[in-house]
TrEMBL record:
<dbReference type="GO" id="GO:0006420">
    <property type="term" value="P:arginyl-tRNA aminoacylation"/>
</dbReference>
<feature type="compositionally biased region" description="Low complexity">
    <location>
        <begin position="84"/>
        <end position="105"/>
    </location>
</feature>
<comment type="similarity">
    <text>Belongs to the class-I aminoacyl-tRNA synthetase family.</text>
</comment>
<keyword id="KW-0648">Protein biosynthesis</keyword>
<dbReference type="Pfam" id="PF00750">
    <property type="entry name" value="tRNA-synt_1d"/>
</dbReference>
<dbReference type="GO" id="GO:0005829">
    <property type="term" value="C:cytosol"/>
</dbReference>
<dbReference type="GO" id="GO:0005524">
    <property type="term" value="F:ATP binding"/>
</dbReference>
<dbReference type="InterPro" id="IPR036695">
    <property type="entry name" value="Arg-tRNA-synth_N_sf"/>
</dbReference>
<dbReference type="InterPro" id="IPR014729">
    <property type="entry name" value="Rossmann-like_a/b/a_fold"/>
</dbReference>
<protein>
    <recommendedName>
        <fullName>Probable arginine--tRNA ligase, cytoplasmic</fullName>
        <ecNumber>6.1.1.19</ecNumber>
    </recommendedName>
</protein>
<dbReference type="GO" id="GO:0017101">
    <property type="term" value="C:aminoacyl-tRNA synthetase multienzyme complex"/>
</dbReference>
<dbReference type="InterPro" id="IPR035684">
    <property type="entry name" value="ArgRS_core"/>
</dbReference>
<keyword id="KW-0067">ATP-binding</keyword>
<feature type="domain" description="DALR anticodon binding">
    <location>
        <begin position="566"/>
        <end position="688"/>
    </location>
</feature>
<keyword id="KW-0547">Nucleotide-binding</keyword>
<dbReference type="InterPro" id="IPR009080">
    <property type="entry name" value="tRNAsynth_Ia_anticodon-bd"/>
</dbReference>
<feature type="domain" description="Arginyl tRNA synthetase N-terminal">
    <location>
        <begin position="134"/>
        <end position="222"/>
    </location>
</feature>
Amino acid sequence: MVNPTASTSEEEEFSALSIQLRQAEAQFSAQERAIQAYSAGKGIEDLLEKSPELREVYTRNEKLKYRKNILMAALEAQLKKNGASPTAAPSSAKKAKTAAPAAAAEEQKGALNPKLTEKFDYVKVEDYGSSMLRRLADLFKAAIGKAYPDIKLDNIALNECQNAKLGDYQCNSAMAIANKLKATGAKIRPSEVAEKIAAELPKTDFVESVDVAPAGFINIHLKKDYIQHRVFTVAKSEMHVGHLRSTIIGDSICRLLELVNFDVLRINHVGDWGTQFGMLIAHLRDKFPDFKEKTPPIGDLQAFYKESKKRFDEDTEFKARAYECVVKLQSFEPTIVHGWQQICDVSRKYFKSVYDRLDIKLIERGESFYQDKMQAVVEELEKRSVLKEEDGRKVMFPTGCNIPLTVVKSDGGFTYDTSDLAALKQRLNDEKGDWLIYVIDSGQSLHMETIFAAGRDLGWYKPEDKRVEHVGFGLVLGEDRKKFKTRSGETVRLVDLLDEGCKRAREGLVERKRDEHMTPEELDAAEKSVAFGCVKYADLSHTRTQDYVFSFDRMLETTGNTAVYLLYAYTRIKSILRSSGAQTEYEAWLASNDSVPLDHPSELKLAKLILRFSDTLLLVLDTLMLHPICDYLYQLATQSSDFYRECWVIETKGERKVHYNRMALCIATANVMKTCFDILGLHPVEKM
């Protein structure tokens, strides 16, 4: 699929990476000095348990280490691409003042990432739908196998023709085959290879013709009849901030998998155990001593947490009682468990209100669920002699990892590593998961890959049989490009974010006088559609591994690649269909036809784009990157706008006439757009 977004130049990309690297190095050095100062002469895990502030610094430092590794690798790759050595500065007027020093690069070879590089074909596609790329790939794979049975290619080089005059698709594999033959001493031009491949292509119901360019490109022309028939089928069938990113991205991945008939278990893994809950329970007992008999009126859990955190930081006696509550909680002391449940209920109620507004369905499963399973994991690891003693801790070094998993602390307690191992095993064994997807921020990538490596070492799963992967994402930034916070510097509550979105969405609708043409109920529906849709789309339309800037002003714009523009485009199509007043006649036309005539160039162009939807779905299923759906949706909306500007669906000059083939194209477009909205979790409305 062609991405309409212009790519950054290599020089600009290098400069940006250099700046990020220097910032990461500065932060990394500062955090490392802090940790060294704290941990002098003491066990680091004990310190982390006793100091939430230090744990936060330590976690941030580990994330920076990993991010610095990524930046170093990206810089090295970019320099090689530019033809420079990894330690040389680029020759450009916009070049960075200095390149990363070799010593720093050598130092950051440090943490090994055990992520698997081998690719396995996990998903069997039983129906390619309207995907031309997959059909053509199968066709050319067979033809190349017949023409050159001794040549092995990793993939078939297929893409859409940039110039429509040359054809619809293009196969460029002849050049790679010619190079492989040249390495064996055979002298053959790419064009000769291409001719031999083309000769082995069988006749199909979707390829009109192929021709070979002098350079060896094989241009493919699709049959117009096939396009007309496939679009007719689409038109006839009704196609049915921290937490912010993981929730929105995870929900969309679930929607995509459910669309293609996977059985999906939506697990929300929440932190409901450990020091912070001991702190909250201790504060609960002091503030509401009758909490056992009367439900405490905790209206704002974030404010309640801030109160308890302040006491924890400033009052040593309170801190000791908080740790005591942790011990009692882990021992399942009834009174403490009751308090813990009340706090969890308040948190659960808040998040449910957010999830209901965003139409997100989840099964909550906190760390507490895995408490009894952790002990079983430790016993298994001890029995298999894979744990090592280190500063009083029991650690495991999975294959390819030089940073261990701390399975048992020096005081005998468990860690996040222990619970993540227990959760992995439970999902594989008890839930019988074939494909495990962890939607967690990119800073946890090294940790998750280490957990996965441990699971492979222990024989819990084989990567050729089970797909276990981390779907990472970047940070949500404010317009100052710093971590997204309120003006007072506090974390933004999701419910406040959604309320602000609704307020601004309604203001925009009223400003454009849309309210004058809608009932109060229609206005409310449009407000929520725009408000919640813009928040989701702004996240999903960005490459998920990158940070993105949260800006209501930008996401509520009515032009460009925004949810507002797309929702308006959809309602415009629906408005055209309503105004035709010819639903009965159109259904009669459908019943008497089996394809959509495509006589105007704009009709054919839109039809071809509609059929690319399956290619987009298959790409996203493979990569779990959701922005290609947004790119495709935006392209479809703009192309449909061009279409009905050039091709009247309803002619009103003279005798009124409805073009049913164009009406069918509008319906097919609306069906595909609605399916894209469903995947992204957006709810379009009929009127806006």
